[in-house]
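Data availability (excerpt). The following record was deposited with the supplementary files.
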Amino acid sequence: MLRISVEEAAMNLKSLLELVARGEEVILLDQDKVVARLVPPLQKEQRLVTMKKFRESLAIKGESLSATVINARIEERR
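Predicted structure:
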């Protein structure tokens, strides 16, 4: 993992992007504080796992939308 100042990164952006494209991570520093990370994009398989975990973490509360619509229509008829 390469750590580089923002100023240096600005001057060498193309070469840094080439490193990231090869799978390396680059940490950008501003006055010795981490301000950003350049990381390679997730592969399709990794994105799908992440999305699946996210969906599974959602807890749906209350009735379903279809039940809400049906109940609203019944109430309108009364």
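Summary of structural features: The chain has one domain: 2-77.
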